[in-house]
Structures are given as structure tokens and as C-alpha cells.
Amino acid sequence: xxxxxSWSDARAASTGARREGxxxxxxxxxxxxxxxxxxxxxxxxxxxPPGSITALVGPSGSGKTTFLRSLxxxxxxxxxxxxxxxxxxxxxxxxGRDVDPLVLRRRVGMVFQRPNPFPMSIQDNVVAGVRAHxxxxxxxxxxxxxxxxxxxxxxxxxxxxxxxxxxRLSGGQQQLLCLARALAVEPEVLLLDEPTSSxxxxxxxxxxxxxxxxxxxxxxxxxxxxxxxxxxLSDNTVLFYQGRLVESGPTSxxxxxxxxxxxxxxxxxxxxxAVLA
Length: 277
Ligand SMILES: Nc1ncnc2c1ncn2[C@@H]1O[C@H](COP(=O)(O)OP(=O)(O)O)[C@@H](O)[C@H]1O
Ligand SMILES: [Mg+2]
Prior knowledge:
Blueprint: H1 4-13, E1 26-35, E2 38-48, E3 53-57, H2 64-70, E4 81-89, E5 92-93, H3 101-107, E6 108-111, H4 122-132, H5 141-151, H6 155-158, H7 171-184, E7 189-193, H8 201-214, E8 219-223, H9 227-233, E9 236-241, E10 244-250, H10 251-256, H11 261-267
Parallel strand pairs: 3-8, 3-9, 6-7, 7-8
Antiparallel strand pairs: 1-2, 1-4, 4-5, 9-10
Helix pairs in contact: 4-5, 4-7, 5-7, 7-8
Bound molecules: adenosine-5'-diphosphate and magnesium ion.
């Protein structure tokens, strides 16, 4: 059983604003993004409401990943990357002088398309961020690992191998481990880039179920090329095409009563990018 103490320890040591159950709003205002001389996205204005699941959809190469990665400044690591316009977390510019990108990435966590466990034990993977941000005492780490592994449904599978390497886990289990690691630092926003694209249907279902359970405590933004997944999982959908936002709104509206003919054609199952040209 998880003792109550592990939570209070983690909370007491946490310097961040978040307590469990606070989800943040993210907004983009007139955003342009690019690499070197190439503009990848332009004219992007969109709100990602707190506690909701927003799906980013669109053909391959439309800029979904670039946009997602700009929400927690992951693109800062790419030398040729540039940005114009504002990106706001609860109304505050994430590029502000007072913002430490590491603290931002604790508040706005990310899970990548391919599972990327660190080369350390399963338990150390889960608590890697907790440790880096000094969010809890050393003595609390095991309980935090158990709590987070249980939260993602992995506890029974790994309870007796916490000290083992994560690389012998299945792909789906590795992705759940990465989700546990992302959740352990109690983010307000979770960015998921095609989190189930390398998973089998059962693991996909497990991840979708988890994402649903996380809201409304957390704001989720999920890139998916799987339109059926966007439809069954998200509250809101944003359609990108060739670096522009075509339409955004409640998922049922985009799929059933889209305002733009391009949306109807793309979400209607004809995913040939030519229909949008
Ligand atoms: N690091 C980078 N340097 C230069 N161009 C990039 C980089 N990352 C992505 N791009 C370009 O940005 C465009 C959008 O890519 P991406 O955001 O990955 O689209 P999506 O995720 O929708 O498939 C593509 O033309 C891609 O080649
Ligand atoms: Mg992508």
C-alpha cells in the first residue's frame, strides 16, 4: 500500500505552484515558427482549455510536432529554430525572462512518439524528474514510484523488478513507464506526440484510458494521425494543414458539423493531402 506520507513529503518539498488537480490553460497568439529560412507554421492562434484533451491532427509534415514542442520550449534545443508571437501558460508568456525552461518543462511535461526510457532502473526512471527537481526526500522515492506505476496500470507487472532495466519491458509497457515518469513531477499540462503510434491495440487502449483518467486534473494536448483516436479521445480538435490552422473547436463539431470544406474532406476520411490544396 502507498502510505499517505509519500504524498505529503512530495508536496511539502515541491516548490511549484501545482497541487494535484490544477490544470493550466495554454494559448498561442499569432504564432509563427520556423527553422532557418523556412517558415513551418504561421498565423496560429488557439486556446487549449484547462482540464481538457485537445487533439492536434493533420497530414504528415503539417507542423504538429513542431507546434507541440514549442509549447514547452523543446525546440529551443534546435539551433536554427525561431519563433514569433506569444505562447502563454495560464496567461503568462513562457519565453519571459523569469521563466526557467527546466521549471517550464516540469509544469508542461512531454511524452514522445517512441518510448524513451533512460538507461537506469525502472524505479529510477519513474523518479528521475522528482529527483532532479528535488521534489521529495530520498526515503519517499519508492512510494512515489509505486504510486505512479499504479496510476498508469504498470505496478503489478513490475512490482518485483523495480531494480531491473526498463529495456526488457514491451513497447507498450515502456511507453506507460514514460507516462509514469512524466506524471511523477505533477505537470499541469501533458504534451503527447503520437503516443500510441508504435503500440499494439491493447497498449493503445491502456494509454487512452489513462489519458481520460488524467483529465480534468491535467490539460492534455495529443498529436495523433489516427482520426478515430482523436474522435474518441479528445474534447477539442485542431486541424493543421501545411503550417496553418484550418479549423479548431469541439471535436464533435469538427467531425460532424465542420465550418470549412477542407475540414469536412480531411476528417471525413479522405486523408489525401491533395484534397486540402
Ligand atoms: N529540426 C528541424 N529542422 C528543420 N526543419 C524541421 C525540423 N523539424 C521539423 N522540420 C520541418 O518542419 C515541417 C513540419 O514538421 P513536423 O512538425 O514534424 O510535422 P508533423 O509532426 O505534422 O508531421 C516539416 O517540413 C519538417 O521537415
Ligand atoms: Mg510529427
